[in-house]
Design brief:
The chain is of the alpha/beta class. It folds into 2 domains: about 240 residues, Type I PLP-dependent aspartate aminotransferase-like (Major domain) (Aspartate Aminotransferase, domain 2); about 130 residues, Alpha-Beta Complex (Aspartate Aminotransferase, domain 1). Helices cover about 35% and strands about 15% of the residues. It is built from 14 helices and 12 strands. The strands form 2 sheets. It has a 7-stranded mixed β-sheet with strand order 1-7-6-5-4-2-3, with helices on both faces. Strands 8-9-12-11-10 form a 5-stranded mixed β-sheet, with helices on one face. Strand 5, helix 7 and strand 6 form a beta-alpha-beta unit. Helix 3 packs parallel to helix 4 and helix 12 packs across helix 14. The longest helix has 21 residues. It is globular and about 75 Å long. It starts with a helix and ends with a helix. The structure holds pyridoxal-5'-phosphate. The site of pyridoxal-5'-phosphate has 16 residues, from helix 3 and helix 4.
Length: about 375
């Protein structure tokens, strides 16, 4: 099956008893057994497996070209399961421009369990080679990064660690599998905040892991089962429903995204636009090679460099909603320094380039004319 067919049919079957075309929401914690230990359809207790969650997990594996999919109660719960796979003393190398909550999970929770995290810029893979030690067990990257839209060459990183006992995990939340499939490029684990593009409707918090091998999938399923960060059946249904329109939504997000980026780039008040589909992006060539399209995430700064200008613009947007999160059908606007990335210390933010005048847009699937005129009016209020 090709991708647009997979988002609808991948790993799915009609419910065998009634023929229900959609998987039912199986609101049950447990499953009846006729004699002890004999399961009717492999299901025993819903923390271990639930048919609605299973349908979603099979869809996830299908669309990311992986062996196993796992659905968690949030993106961070999914990451947490990967970290529990490691042992005290192990080292993790992570890209330095990281989702704020991922940074918080690494540094404020797992450092105390004696995992060591080294943050480096992944724009040149030799910088990763410099910090690999014999204790390095995991490389964690995002591409495009949040919020500066830096790209990482997934295949180059996978090639660098080929043959070594190091796992490569890619947070594919910003791109979605419509745009790039990390396992095809050599990653071992793909992670999603399914809250974002996979769910697509800003109505659910969910996370996902997809593994290249069944062996790794089984090990992570054991952690999911043993520590319990599962996604419930209702939420599993919502994400599954979202995935069915992923291709259509990503096409429109990308069409609107590039136009909003171009509009911002020519605007006299704008200093810099961060969007991989613009020829001014330093990794424009990599974007063309690695990404099918460029998605809906666009960040920018002001010529004035003033935080007040960013705040004023954000207060005056009407079609864009000022809110955290991204990836839903509706356009959202965010001020990373005070919102999504507030958990990163101010000096560290400054070092990374997450300045106080930086605005991040999640461009939705509304009519482009309405989005541009909304921005136009908000700019004129400054
Ligand atoms: C939102 C997000 C997360 C965290 O996911 P939750 O579902 O909020 O727990 C991780 N990575 C990225 C890139 C995100 O945008």
């Amino acid at each position: 099956m090709k991708f647009n067919t997979k988002v609808i049919h991948g790993g799915q079957q009609h419910e065998p008893h009634t023929g229900s075309v959609n998987v039912p929401v199986f609101l049950t914690s447990t499953f009846a057994q006729r004699t002890p230990g004999e399961l009717k359809a492999g299901y025993e207790y819903s923390r271990a497996a639930n048919p609605t969650r299973q349908a979603l997990e099979d869809a996830l594996a299908s669309i990311e070209n992986g062996a196993t999919g796992l659905a968690f109660g949030s993106g961070l719960a999914a990451m947490d399961a990967v970290l529990k796979f490691l042992n005290p003393g192990d080292e993790v190398i992570a890209v330095d421009d990281l989702y704020g909550g991922s940074y918080r999970l690494f540094t404020r929770l797992y450092e105390k369990y004696d995992l060591k995290f080294t943050f480096v810029s992944f724009d040149d893979v030799s910088k990763i080679a410099d910090v690999i030690t014999d204790k390095t067990k995991l490389i964690w990257l995002e591409t495009p990064t949040n919020p500066l839209m830096k790209l990482v060459d997934i295949k180059a990183v996978a090639d660098l660690i080929k043959g070594k006992d190091i796992l490569l995990a890619v947070d594919n939340t910003f791109a979605s599998p419509y745009i790039q499939r990390p396992i095809d490029l050599g990653a071992d684990i793909v992670m999603h905040s399914a809250t974002k593009y996979l769910g697509g409707h800003s109505d659910v918090i969910a996370g996902a892991l997809i593994t290249k091998t069944k062996e790794l999938g089984d090990a992570l399923h054991f952690i999911q089962f043993a520590s319990g960060g599962i996604l419930g059946p209702h939420d599993s249904y919502l994400v599954l429903r979202g995935i069915k329109t992923l291709s259509l939504r990503m096409q429109r997000h990308s069409e609107n995204g590039i136009e909003v980026a171009k509009y911002l780039e020519q605007h006299p008040s704008v200093e810099k636009v961060f969007y991989p589909g613009l020829p001014s992006h330093p990794q424009y060539e990599l974007a063309k090679k690695q990404m099918k399209e460029n998605g809906g995430m666009v960040s920018f700064t002001f010529k004035s460099g003033k935080k007040e200008d960013a705040v004023k613009l954000l207060e005056n947007l009407k079609v864009f909603t000022l809110a955290e999160s991204l990836g839903g059908v509706e356009s959202l606007a965010n001020h990373p320094a005070t919102m999504t990335h507030a958990s990163i210390p101010a000096e560290k933010r400054a070092e990374l380039g997450i300045t106080d005048d930086l605005v991040r847009l999640s461009v939705g699937i509304e009519d482009l004319e309405d989005l541009i005129s909304d921005l136009e009016k908000a700019f004129s209020s400054i």
